[in-house]
Amino acid sequence: MTASVQIVDYVEQGQSLYIQLKVVDAETGMEVEGEVRFLGELLYGELIHEKKSPLTDTTRIETIAYLKTHFGR
Predict the structure, then answer these.
(1) Angle, vertex CA 34, rays to CA 33 and CA 38, nearest 5
(2) How far apart are the C-alpha atoms of 33 and 15, rounded to whole Å?
(3) Cβ distance 37 to 49 under 8 Å?
(4) Are 21 and 5 in contact (CB under 8 A)?
(5) How many CA atoms lie within 13 A of 5 on its CB side?
(6) Does residue 68 carry a pLDDT above 70?
(7) Model pTM?
(8) Is the pLDDT assigned to residue 62 strictly greater than 80?
(9) Span 48-56, average pLDDT
(10) What is the pLDDT of residues 29-49, one digit of tens each?
(11) Which candidate, 32, 34, 23, 19, places its Cα nearest to that of 1?
């Protein structure tokens, strides 16, 4: 199974890149909307946080990999 990640919008401000996205968790079928932020190469946000994310671990990891690849960071 793979997660469905949809980038709704993003904006760059200096070193920061703010990304609005929708993710459909492949394991639960639940759709989650949220915002994450790249600060340089590092990615932050509750949506992808190991303990705070509503996503399953597999979907969370796939989402992180997708965003890093998509934005080349």
Answers:
(1) 140
(2) 23
(3) no
(4) yes
(5) 25
(6) yes
(7) 0.92
(8) yes
(9) 96
(10) 999 999 999 999 999 999 999
(11) 23
> In angstroms, rounded to a whole number, what is the distance separating the alpha carbons of residues 18 and 1?
27
- The 3-class SS string of 29-58 reads CCEEEEEEEEECCEEECHHHCCCCCCCCHH
| Distances in whole angstroms, Cα of residue 31 to Cα of each of 5, 7, 14, 17, 18 | 10, 13, 30, 23, 20
CA distance 20 to 27: 22
The mean pLDDT of the chain is: 95
Closest CA to 67 of 30, 37, 40: 37
Please tell me the predicted confidence (pLDDT) of residue 1: 62
* Residue located via tokens 């469905």: 4
User: Nearest to residue 17, comparing CAs of 62, 73, 59, 63?
Assistant: 73
